[in-house]
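debug: dumping io for the single-chain case to check the tokenizer round-trip. Nothing else runs in this session.
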Amino acid sequence: MDFLDNLFFFLVRPLLAISFVVCFIALWWFLAWKLVLSHVPLVQEIFGLRKKTIKPKPESRGRISKFYKSISSQNPVPI
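debug: decoded output
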């Protein structure tokens, strides 16, 4: 009986404690992942969950490009 008590005390109890802690951490990580982390764009990009969409830039993006187009159409450059 003494051998079984020592085996339980030195081997089984620490393994149960370690497995409990690992399961506890895994449970909270899973909950945090499902509730918060999977919705953060930086985390999505790191883990490859969402591909970055590349939109082509429009030719006339703002006021400056419109200004230069209006100047070049009013004063054509002679060849």
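debug: round-trip ok. The radius of gyration is 32 Å.
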